[in-house]
UniProtKB/TrEMBL annotation:
This is HesA/MoeB/ThiF family protein. Coiled coil: none annotated. Pfam families: ThiF. It comes from Acidiferrobacter thiooxydans. Transmembrane segments: none annotated. The lineage of its organism: Bacteria, Pseudomonadati, Pseudomonadota, Gammaproteobacteria, Acidiferrobacterales. InterPro entries: ThiF/MoeB/HesA (IPR045886), ThiF_NAD_FAD-bd (IPR000594), Ubiquitin-activating_enz (IPR035985).
């Protein structure tokens, strides 16, 4: 990464949407990795059932807003550049928050939010690192505004074709979420530091049940409503 890469991280601002099994790990790594400012967005409170996989939180945080609990933990580790958004980002507020940062980590758990984040990032020409996990499987990709040939998140999942169930309904194995989140944080740091990544053009998928993974080349969908309006 070098000195220049470290300095880029120190100057960077990252929005993390969702502080669950993915976002809690991403926040830890980016904070300890020297990212200058983290914007933490989540409207939910900590529940007892969160604790096995959402490692930012402890028993004492049950009932607290996740943003407040995350701030306490991260500040205790020395993080200072923290801004809290204890609400569900959507519409103009989402667009505004995306436009104010250098990169977005989508750690949400539903397609509606992922579609909205993807569109906001496309319109603002902001890099997006998106991860998803369900049961024992996960996927990861990077949408870079400078690589339009690979398309965006919406190119992979046309409207009406998505499965609406989330990890709260189907469940997720905690360490699988942690593994995907660790790689999501690594991809975010690479993008911020200017290190090339194949995931700006590929989709990476992992199945913990078989310990198999594969990369699939992404292509821009000529009918994608988001890519048609990208700058």
């Amino acid at each position: 990464m070098g000195v220049e890469g470290v300095l880029r991280l120190a100057r960077a601002r990252v929005l993390i949407v969702g502080l669950g099994g993915l976002g809690s790990v991403v926040a830890l790594y980016l904070a300890r990795g020297g990212v200058g400012e983290l914007v933490l967005a989540d409207p939910d409170t900590v529940t007892l059932s969160n604790l096995p996989r959402q490692i930012l939180y402890a028993d004492r945080h049950v009932g607290q807003l996740k943003t407040d609990a995350a701030h306490e933990t991260l500040a205790g580790l020395g993080a200072s550049g923290l801004r809290l958004v204890p609400e569900r980002l959507q519409g103009a507020r989402l667009a505004d928050e995306v436009a104010r940062v250098d990169l977005v980590c989508d750690a949400s758990d539903n397609f509606a939010t992922r579609f909205a984040i993807n569109e906001a990032c496309a319109q603002a020409a902001i890099p997006l690192v998106s991860a998803a996990v369900i049961r024992m499987t996960g996927q990861l990709l990077v949408v870079h505004p400078g690589d339009s040939a690979a398309g965006c998140y919406r190119c992979l999942y046309p409207e009406g074709g998505e499965d609406a169930e989330s990890c709260s309904e189907r469940g997720v194995l905690g360490p699988v979420a942690g593994a995907l989140a660790t790689l999501q944080a690594a991809e975010a740091m690479k993008v911020l530091a200017g290190i090339p990544t194949p995931l700006s053009r590929d989709l990476w998928m992992f199945d913990d049940a078989t310990l198999e993974s594969r990369r699939v080349r992404r292509r821009r969908d000529p009918d994608c409503p988001v890519c048609k309006t990208r700058p």
